[in-house]
Amino acid sequence: MNLAGWALAELGVVFAVGSGVITLLYLLRMRRRQVVVPFAALWDQVTRESESRRLWRKLRRLFSWLVQLLLLALVCLALGDPRPEVWLRDPATTAIVIDTSASMAAAADEDGNTRLTLALERARAEVEALGPADHALIIAAGSEVSVPAPITGEAGTLLRALEEDVAAGPGEADLSRALLLARNALSGRSSPRILVLTDGALDGPALDAVGRCTARGQLEGEARCEVFEIGAEHEVGNVAITAFAARRYPSNHDKVEVLVEVQNLGEQPARFELRVTADGLPVGGKQLELAPGARAREVLPKLEAARERLVAELIALPNDRESAESLGPKIDDRAYAVIPPLDPMEVVLVTDGTNLFLEAALLTLDDYVRLTTLTPSEGDPSNPAIETANVVFYDIADNPLPDPLPDTNLVIFDPHRLDKTPVPVAKLKDLVSPRLSEQKKDHPLLEGVVFKDVNMHSGDSFDIDPGDVALVSHLGDPIVVLREAEHGMLLIGFDLRSSDLPLRTAFPLLVANAVDYFGMREAGFVAAIPIGASRDLALADFGVPGMDVSLLEVTPPDLDPDDDEAPEPQRVRAQDGRFRMRALIPGVYTIAVQDGDAEGSVVEVAVNQANAAASNLESRLDEATVPEASRAGEPPDPAPLSEGPLWTLIMLIAVTLIAIEWATYHRRKTV
Amino acid sequence: MALGQRIGRGRRQQKTKQVDRSDLFDEEFLRQLELLQVIARRLIRGRQRAERKTRKVGSGLEFADHREYSPGDDIRNVDWGVYARLGQTLVRLFEEDEDLPLRLVVDVSDSMLTKDGQKLIYAQKIAAALAYVGLAGLDRVGLTAFSAKVHETIPAIRGKGRIFRVFEFLKNTQIGGPTDIYGGCKRVAAQSSQPGVTVVLSDFYDLEGAFDGLNMLRFRKHEVVAIQVLDPIEANPVDTGLRGDVTLVDVEGDDTRDVTLSASLLESYAEAHERFCTHLANKCRSRGMPFFSASIDEPFDDLVLRIFRLGGVLR
Questions:
Q1: ipTM exceeding 0.90, yes/no
Q2: pLDDT 10s digits, A629-667
Q3: Helices (H), A551-645
Q4: CATH number belonging to domain A88-235+619-630
């Protein structure tokens, strides 16, 4: 505490003189008033009883005198204009950068405080330590950088912003932009300082930005950069959904196949339930157990889901505390998927027209198959129909197969009828009246297909390579083979015309399974969009042919479906079929095309955090990034008074004291 | 009102005898007395005859008793009828008509002079009223003003026309000095050759001598009537607002006492004052002495009528 007004010696003189005057006036005041009474003898009787209180009366007089001296001392102190040390230093400006990424929602201590809670506590301590000339601003660095409180010296504004406008969100902290913003804001200000409050669970760009900040902070004239690391000492588990997608089966639009990727980012094994819901109703699920660091890709086949929106959730096992703790922050335990529309598959049948069974089997799939029939002479890979086909069936009897074979999924019957064949799987031997003695029942291609008792005149077995799948065999010789490469190739080593397979129920099932199988290979999962403040997207990715589209309307997900208030759509400009979308909330966004040929088209897009790096709670700050000198120390002590001269407060105390003394005097409590 | 004015403005001021008594008995007062006299006589007549009588036998007209004849008795008083019937020589005795004096004794000590002498003025008005009624009833009326320093007396006078002498006495008598009820009563008793009705008007602020003085008069065959004149503020100073450290100065002496006045202390004083007055009244009444307590807030004529209603002062 320093005196900015009168010097201590001057104040001493004033106090000495003042106390002398007060004492003199007090002695004068202590002269008793004389009151004449007519019956003194009676007064003697009653006053004798109060003699015992004489000591207290003396003390009251002394107390009153001391109050006067205290008043004088307060006035002298006010004249001295006392100021705390913190007020006398140069005014400083502090940019408080708070990491609001998903990892900040993780528990930071045993009391259940999150990392963000501790960061806010530290930020509050910094604000409360500001001197009257100091300023600060608050920058929240999440997926998007925001400034809850601009540069101000008003602690109330800063504290209110910390209370109301800073919350952890999904995604990574964009510290690069946040620190750049902080540095620009502090430019030209005295004693600039950047305080980064983070848990250190950052991605590469953010780590680089912190490293640059601390390195520049060591330079003369640059803003000092300090990092306060939160929650590093508290081990916490986390399991995140890092991918989630769904697609329909080509042959059955009421069923979907779901792909979920889950990763255990914690140090302990994790047990939990993976649950998939559509409109709040569970449609599938699985209990999983993951070792530390393990990642599981789970495919949940044939889920009943007529709706187009799916939600995957990680749920702790009932009454299992460890299970709940291992899941970590909930922000990455939930993911969304939109089931993409399924276009009909392009199927080409190359046939000599002698086998109508195959064409009939394909025609039964006309709801989801667009069938093109070609003659053997038209079955060349250069044929446009074959170039765009998803699956090509070759049933051409004695006609040669095209060489090379088309670069697509193929189903070829009796490929080794002719000696010269482009089929890459060699013939093993000729078979006479083969019996289909073994079949790989669990393969999707053979689901529901029974080759038992199928008769045929002759056939060929294949000399398969490692990786080839022998689906059906004759006494160990593969007669139906699947080769998986960039495209699939199903080889059936006999001619349909020389067997009774087309007459059996297994035949149309085999054809449908082949179309489904190759269709599922082609129709990939549509990945969700990762969270980001400005994602560059192409309309074509969502099936909208919109090179001429210039205006879109993007409606964010409705976070509270029970609320009648619908989310406000945002208008977004598009150019050359591309647009930028602000996707900061996980969920399903609706994109409506406002102009162009595709005007009126509406597509839905799922936005997920789906980022293992964002879900990783482990600090990546090291000595190289943040040297010891750049680590923030203990929180500063609160400033005694953040605003206003202290002497006004002292005078306020003095006036209050006078009021109390006046009131007590008139009630005869003091003298 | 200033605190000091409630009980006493200052010792010097109170002891200067500067009580303004010039307008004490004006025309209005005389009219009040005339009216009072009429009302009072009506009250008295309803009870007894107007004149006062002694209990002595003598030369009156009303037969009282017989006694043996003694040499020297007036032979005209011999009851010859009794002698004729019984042969005894008895003389007839008659009650003697004699006017007994009404003595009004007014305390003029310093304690009666507080608050501009309002208690003294009140006491003097009562005394004047009683004197007027007495003189109008052909009673002999004497007055005495007393304190430890003052003792002035008007010998018994008779006749309504003498009322102005009473007024002059009351207006001009010396005032002041400590209270000395016993001494005052003692001198009244000594000066009175004939005991009569003695009305003592005082605040009786004398712990020891108040009752002793009255009792001494009674012992000397006086029919004593005590009228205590009180100032309600003095009797109960709780509401005066007087608080804090003060020096209490006795109006009648140099005694001082430093006290801290508080509400509780003032309440204690009021209770002690009440006890004192009650005790004095009870002692007087127990010995057949009528005791009246008069507040200066009460109109004096109301008090006088109250006294006459009770009886004993005039017959």
A1: no
A2: 888 888 887 776 655 677 888 888 888 888 888 877 766
A3: 612-615
A4: 3.40.50.410
